[in-house]
């Protein structure tokens, strides 16, 4: 090799070393025993450990917080299969617990990372080493999470009745359809409960429409206290709330409904120094083989409420008991 070739080779080596040390990604090279052979400037800057101090040390001994068993399995597959592997921040937010110093995403405490594991072969073609390429993806991760959070809030807003903060009519009715299909396919009981606020129009006329709104919120607040995790509660129409009770037959639904009715009757609603008496009429329908559509299920529950109102209000009627 001539002097010019030697000089070119030296220059290329210098350039490569300079690139490795200054590139804005982490680069770590490990031998078969996971001892560190290369530790570039990115890794030094974020770990505070210099290449000279760490070279030859075992990765897991120097960083005991690493998920050792999980990460070793990933690395062993790279050595064995001679294929690269990827670790996404969505799979695990970070491998190296580096603090985040990026000003744009200052709210993130730690650096979110994508990592690529690459097999490195020797001159004989044997896979003797492995490289870890560590990418700082904090900006992209935070942006995606913020977008998902905004989307989730928008979806929740679209599903929620503004006055009661229960499901609105559209999404509650979708719950009826879903529960109807689930119960029919799995042969499980379920009941629908309607609660209609008694004489809401009189409350509006006597105390004003704001008082009527407070009465609706008052009832919704009490009903929420009785909800189980699988219950689906929504505002069916102006003065009527609907409650879907999965895995609940008519008898159990009636027991729960009576407790709700009694709590509403006993609770006090004060509006502008006036005590407003609020009661509800309730109707239940248990899903059974005779009910062929969700609409019929709803109609039966509505019929039960009508019967409760006709019988004097502030009481419960179960559809199966109707003559």
TrEMBL record:
Q: What is its EC number?
A: 2.7.7.65
- UniProt xrefs under NCBIfam families: GGDEF, sensory_box
- A Pfam family matched in the record: GGDEF
Q: Which domain of life is it from?
A: Bacteria
Q: Which residues form the GGDEF domain?
A: 188-321
The molecule here is called diguanylate cyclase
Give the catalytic activity.
2 GTP = 3',3'-c-di-GMP + 2 diphosphate
Per its UniProt record, what InterPro entries does this chain match?
Diguanylate_Cyclase (IPR050469), GGDEF_dom (IPR000160), Nucleotide_cyclase (IPR029787), PAS (IPR000014), PAS-like_dom_sf (IPR035965), Rev_trsase/Diguanyl_cyclase (IPR043128)
The beginning of the lineage is:
Bacteria, Pseudomonadati, Pseudomonadota, Gammaproteobacteria, Alteromonadales
- Signal peptide range equals none
